[in-house]
Design goal:
GO biological process, one term: malate metabolic process
Shape: globular
Number of strands: 16
InterPro entries: Aminoacid_DH-like_N_sf, Malic_enzyme_CS, Malic_N_dom, Malic_N_dom_sf, Malic_NAD-bd, Malic_OxRdtase, NAD(P)-bd_dom_sf
Low-confidence stretches: none
Family: Belongs to the malic enzymes family.
Largest sheet: 7 strands, mixed
Strand content: 5-15%
GO molecular function: malate dehydrogenase (decarboxylating) (NAD+) activity; metal ion binding; NAD binding
Structural class: alpha/beta
Helix content: 40-55%
CATH class of the largest domain: Alpha Beta
Mean pLDDT: 94
Organism: Penicillium arizonense
Length: 575
């Protein structure tokens, strides 16, 4: 008997243990990924559901199925072929799909997510086999509620990921193919935080596309027209959010890969109204800040003293800047405007200054510097800023490869004992620097985290594992905490609590040569820590709506873990 079945919280609605009621029979059950067990159906289940003659006689365990599936997976040569194989498995057998992923997570993560998922998204219309998720058309806004009603009753959806596909994984506008990023993000919430796969909804808002390749592709499945912008676009987003919240009042809404000029203003609009999140802005900010806090601990620099330069001030860069400023505000008891003065943001025009006026996005304006401090006759490029500011931290979100040159890194290393350098741009080819160069140019003093996986670096007889700023160690736990507490909003304090919980897991806190962040393989345990921190903060702020949330830490952790879905076969009984 599992620990869930003996837990005092076993009767909670999301406590996925014990028998599972199934309404299907015979061929139908084999076609439903939620209930299909393939060769693992027991004799009793084969009799109950009239499956004899439809399956080979040998009954196998889930572990045996995982071995066979892994052998099949390994026979696929190219990453995209492996991705396609996994998508087919997900459509056939949900439990086996997730168990296979959990068993080989480190190996398969880049296949089901970045960078291979980007290739799948680019080829969505050509690889299309079976639709997954909800497709909403900007020309058909009056029927949003009708279409959403196909995906469950009001109590049945906990987590929605929605994208309009304008800025996907560093590959830009992918139109209707964005449904796959919504799907992929939800897969990660299940893998890393146990969000029930049957209680999720991936959504794409199809507003057209400005991608010429898609517009000229006869097989493209989305609206073959230029992107709709302005009032019609805003009305579409507003209507979706309004209808989704009415249809699924307990659902947490996760915005993903919206364009630069829409992501921040959509988040700013809905953040005070509903429990919502933007991973590109807040998730990236949280995981980067957690790595930075671990690095500051190693370098013995206080948060109220830190100087940060961010190179690349788009959605990700300003999201990181916001999260750092919010944390300084919370930890050092300073105003947001004072905290922002510790951050210097650089973009295509160079250092952001106030005289840029309307050229600045709303997110950039609060970080623009006074022109009198940076006269027009002074250079405002990265090297000049480094020379004048002497930052402790340099973060790259520019998608400008090799932008952190030897001159820049050596200049930074002249002025601080342990330069903290995070080249985060994805995919790997767009990284601002390679870790091996950063260690060499700083004589091994750099504290490094990257946006993609890199092999360990050997320098001066020591071996350094490189921390990856992988949002998947962070956003699933935040979502889990928000879902289980039924928080009315996701507050800034809740995000700071999440950052602290993630940062506390940094291996570098025990050994300065170890990574600044935990590995994604530990994400499920970390998600419990993060969810607990988020829930406690939600309760303290009076935002939690769920009743009977335990106050004792050990009870709270058990309460969370009982409600996390696991990839196990539950006994099936007739509905």
């Amino acid at each position: 008997m599992s620990s869930k079945e003996t837990s005092k919280f076993k009767n909670l609605p999301r406590a996925a243990s014990g028998p599972l009621e199934c309404p299907y029979d015979a061929k139908t059950i084999l076609k439903d990924a939620r209930y299909n067990k393939g060769s693992a159906f027991t004799q009793e289940e084969r009799k109950t559901f009239n499956l004899h003659g439809m399956l080979p006689p040998n009954i196998q365990t889930l572990e045996e199925q995982v071995q066979r599936a892994y052998d099949q997976y390994s026979s696929r040569g190219e990453p995209l072929a492996k991705n396609t194989f996994m998508a087919s498995m997900k459509a056939q057998n949900e439990v086996l799909y997730y168990k296979l992923l959990q068993t080989h997570l480190k190996e398969m993560f880049s296949i089901i997510y970045t960078p291979t998922e980007g290739d799948a998204i680019q080829n969505y219309s050509r690889l299309f086999r079976k639709p997954e998720g909800c497709f909403l058309d900007i020309r058909d806004q009056d029927n949003i509620d009708k279409y959403l009603s196909n995906f469950g009753k009001e109590e049945e959806i906990d987590y929605i990921v929605v994208s309009d596909g304008e800025e996907i994984l560093g590959i830009g506008d992918q139109g209707v193919g964005a449904i796959l990023i919504s799907v992929a993000k939800l897969v990660i919430t299940t893998l890393c935080a146990g969000i029930h796969p049957s209680r999720q909804l991936p959504v794409v808002l199809d507003c057209g596309t400005d991608n010429e390749d898609l517009l000229n592709d006869d097989l493209y499945l989305g609206l073959r027209q230029r992107r709709v912008r302005g009032k019609e676009y805003d009305d579409f987003v507003d209507k979706f959010v309004s209808v989704a919240r009415k249809r699924f009042p307990k659902a947490f809404i996760h915005f993903e890969d919206f364009g630069l000029h829409n992501a921040r203003r959509i988040l700013d609009k809905f953040q005070p109204q509903i429990p919502c999140f933007n991973d590109d802005i807040q998730g990236t900010g949280c995981v980067t800040l957690a790595a930075m806090m671990a690095a500051l601990h190693v370098s013995k620099v206080k948060m109220e003293e830190v100087r940060v330069v961010i190179f690349g001030s788009g959605t990700a860069g300003t999201g990181i800047a916001d999260q750092i400023a919010d944390t300084i505000t919370t930890e050092a008891h300073r105003s947001k405007s004072e905290a922002s003065k510790q951050i210097w943001c650089i973009d295509k025009p160079g250092l952001l200054v106030k005289s840029l006026g309307e050229k600045l996005t709303p997110a950039q304006k609060s970080f623009a510097r006074e022109d009198e401090d940076w006269p027009a006759d002074e250079s405002r490029d990265l090297l000049s800023v480094i020379k004048k500011v002497h930052p402790h931290v340099l973060i790259g979100t520019s998608t400008k490869p090799k932008a952190f040159t030897e001159d820049i890194v050596r200049e930074m290393a002249k002025h601080v004992e342990r330069p903290i350098i995070f080249p985060l741009s994805n995919p790997t080819r767009l990284h601002e620097a390679e870790p091996k160069d950063l260690y060499e140019w700083t004589e091994g003093r750099a504290l490094v985290a990257t946006g993609s996986p890199f092999p360990p670096v050997e320098y001066g007889g020591a071996k350094y594992d490189i921390a990856e700023c992988n949002n998947s160690t962070c956003f699933p736990g935040i979502g889990l905490g928000a879902v289980l507490s039924r928080s009315r909003l996701l507050s800034k304090k809740m995000l700071v609590a999440a950052v602290k919980a993630l940062g506390a897991r940094a291996p570098a806190l025990q050994d300065s040569n170890e990574p600044l962040l935990p590995d994604v393989e530990d994400a499920r345990e970390i998600s419990v820590d993060i969810a607990a921190a988020v829930i406690k903060c939600s309760v303290d702020e009076g935002l939690a709506q769920e009743e009977d949330i335990p106050t004792k830490d050990s009870d709270l952790r058990e309460w969370i873990q009982v409600q996390m879905w696991e990839a196990i076969y539950r006994p099936l009984v007739k509905a």
